[in-house]
Specification:
By secondary structure, the chain is of the alpha+beta class. The protein contains twelve helices and eight strands.
């Protein structure tokens, strides 16, 4: 158990997550592709504001308590009570939400949406083999994540069923600045997109070692961009040291990041680089080949909105 009280005794599977965690995974990926600003809504008559609000309502169920009142949803989503009520009534009529004694709950039907994403992107057969291979070599954990706004979103994860680990699973989101996965993804952004990130992000000091100084973070990202890997030691959770590399498409654009992690007390960042970087790069290259052969997977990993011209625009390697 770490300082935040997280424990995990077995590799987390999608079926072991709560309904809110599973649906949040789908919503965060899907919303990234349909979310638009108010200004963009005025310019694009093909977007549906009510759909965006409905997804925002559903995503609010991942914040703390799984049951929510109307007033709590309004506070979490910053939409009007009338709009929130309409969204909830629509979702309830479709079977995605149920209500009881002033509270709203997610319904089991949301599982069909999450399963549809996993099937269409072929996550299990496309990504998991390389994660299992890495874990079979290192005996620890491996994961793949994408960048959404200022956070990373795990799309696949595998670990050995031993010891206590912080929670990491498909659908879990963490602040990008405090993770090796996030720093690799941030380092792939062009300067304009990186400026957008620093103008938007609210840095949180998660441990005493978390780097939150923008100037120093920019220096770190430039170093990562040059060497094509990132390490983190105790900046997100105490006791976790991780190493990450980018995963690119055929054009050389970064589409995801791949990591391996271990207990800080049992290894160092230098040791991870020495013993695991070569295998991590091999897995990254294999995942590039997999993405080329799975167009649906490659599209599923492209999390930036289609109408968003700057944020999440990757820097080409080479």
């Amino acid at each position: 158990m770490d300082g935040r009280g997280f424990t995990l005794h077995a590799p987390p599977r999608l079926c072991q997550l709560s309904l809110s965690e599973i649906f949040s995974f789908l919503v965060k990926v899907f919303r990234a592709g349909v979310r638009v600003s108010r200004g963009a809504q005025n310019q694009d008559c093909e977007t549906v504001a009510e759909l965006a609000r409905g997804l925002n309502v559903l995503e609010s169920f991942n914040e703390g308590d799984a049951r929510k009142t109307l007033s709590e949803i309004v506070r979490l989503t910053s939409i009007s009570p009338a709009a929130a009520r309409r969204s909830l009534r629509t979702l309830a009529s479709l079977g995605y939400v149920r209500s009881a004694n002033r509270y709203f709950f997610l319904n089991a039907r949301v599982l069909s949406l999450g399963a549809a994403y996993l099937r269409s992107a072929d996550i299990e057969s496309a990504l998991m083999p390389e994660l299992r291979r890495l874990v079979s070599i290192s005996g620890d954990t491996a994961g793949i994540a994408v960048l959404i706004d200022t956070n990373i979103l795990y799309v696949a994860h595998h670990c050995m069923p031993r010891g206590m680990r912080p929670v990491a699973a498909a659908g879990v989101m963490y602040p990008a600045h405090a993770t090796s996965l996030g720093r690799v993804l941030l380092a792939s952004l062009d300067e304009a997109a990186l400026d957008d990130y620093f103008a938007t992000v609210r840095f949180e000091k998660l441990t005493k070692l978390t780097e939150i100084n923008p100037k120093r973070l920019r220096t770190i990202l430039r170093q990562i961009r040059k060497r094509q890997y990132a390490t983190i030691v105790d900046e997100f959770f105490y006791g976790v040291t991780s190493l990450s590399v980018p995963v690119v498409n055929a054009a050389g654009d970064t589409i995801a990041a791949l990591n391996t992690s271990a207990y800080t007390g049992q290894t160092t960042a230098e040791e991870l680089i020495k013993t695991r970087l070569s295998e991590l790069k091999k897995s990254s290259e294999q995942l590039t080949r997999v993405a080329v052969c799975h167009p649906a997977l490659q599209q599923a990993l492209q999390t930036g909105p289609e109408n968003q011209q700057r944020m999440f625009k990757p820097r080409k390697r080479g």
